[in-house]
Amino acid sequence: MFVFAHPDDAEIYCGGLVARLVEDGKQVKLVKMSTGNKGSRQETITEGDLAKIRETEDLAALKTLGLKDSDSINLDLGDGEIENNLETLGKLVAEIRAFKPNLIVTHNPDQTMIRDLDGGYYVNHRDHRNTAHCAIDAAYPYSRDTLFFPEQLSGGLTTHTTTEFLFVDSWGNQDTVYIEITKQAKKRTAAIACHKSQYPEDKAQASTDYFAPELDGQRFEQFWYVVAD
Asked: Mean per-residue pLDDT for 171-180?
């Protein structure tokens, strides 16, 4: 299960992994917390119009990665308004209990300022940080224990425990793993480019070059891998 804040985040940070898992016949669920309805610098566009544009772009990106519409859900939270609270946890817990992932991939939960291997910094968006904390908390203990959101259980869902996590945006972590996505790199870039309101084609390629740089003809996406009891 991929849990990300905005419609384009999974493609940017780990679109190659998504495509590779699909190609390998794995079941994949992509959960987006927000519609991304404020992600624009245009002065004339409305939140409603932007949300519709981004939904259309998102559907195109899903198909590019090999996902069906049913493999993806948006929890429809406001852009910039994602909170790690019980209401949000309940929505995410329901998705975890329904899909029962053995692995959750999400944002970096630990850092506000991300430092890459070249010494450059960029901000870990507040929505990203809160999404990561929600994903962790939803997995433990809220999805596991029967007395959290018991109405979900009476409605037919069952409890679930997830102990494996991959965190993106985790340069140089001592528990870094590298997953080869050489064959999926073009799909990755094409999926990012589907989000035209956010990324022109050259910027999409630059994103792949940054987050999955080519080395000796191969490309890898990197993650912080954690197994938590």
From this structure: 95
Q: Which residue has the tokens 């901000």?
A: 123
The domain defined by 2-227 folds into Rossmann fold (3.40.50)
Kindly report the number of other CB atoms within 10 A of residue 91's CB atom: 17
Q: What distance in Å separates the CA atoms of residue 119 and residue 29, rounded to the nearest whole number?
A: 33
Handedness of CA 129, 130, 133, 135 (dihedral sign): negative
Going by C-alpha positions, the residue among 170, 171, 114, 109 that lies closest to residue 140 is 109
By the 8 A CB rule, do 89 and 142 touch? yes
So what's the pLDDT on residue 51? 87
| pTM exceeding the 0.90 threshold for the entire prediction | yes
- The residues near 92 (Cβ < 8 Å, ≥ 6 apart) are 3, 31, 33, 75, 134, 135, 138
Say which residue, 184 or 51, is predicted with more confidence.
184
Q: How many residues are recorded in the chain?
A: 229
Instruction: Specify whether the CB–CB gap between 54 and 37 falls below 8 A.
Output: yes
Give the residue extent of every domain in the chain: 2-227
